[in-house]
Amino acid sequence: MVIKFVDIMTAANHARENPDFQSAYIYTSSGTYTLFIENREKAIAFYQTYMNCNSTPGSSDVFKEGSDLDTLWDTSYQELKDYSDNDRHMLALSYILRTVDSGISIAKGDNSTAMFEVITTRIENEKIIPIKCK
Predict the structure, then answer these.
(1) Which of 1, 2, 22, 52 has its CA at 20 to 30 Å from residue 63's CA atom?
(2) Distance of CA 106 to CAs 27, 76, 118, Å?
(3) pTM of the model
(4) How far apart are CA 38 and CA 86, in angstroms?
(5) CA quadruple 54, 60, 62, 66: dihedral positive or negative?
(6) Contacts (Cβ under 8 Å, ≥6 apart) of 84
């Protein structure tokens, strides 16, 4: 199990409804993640712009078919094909959040310590390059 778009939208909505909201923890079989609100105004704008991009219930799609986010997903997920399924999923989500300037970042927790590693990407020579920051 990995972070789903609905998890991200729930965090963005909480940021919209509660000015003190800063992060959400997501517990999955592959680890603990946090969705961190870096910029509340951007997270609210992200929520308002993309709130109708959830995939159809029961669908295996990450985003609503044909949406802008679905197009970004398809492109980034294909480009990241050399990574494990979980890393590929998380890097593609991170790439999308950064590309649309969502104001939200993803970090993965280390089960043996209290440290979280930020999952992010950059573009170099038109290729997505993963960056992990502790």
Answers:
(1) 22
(2) 13, 16, 6
(3) 0.84
(4) 23
(5) negative
(6) none
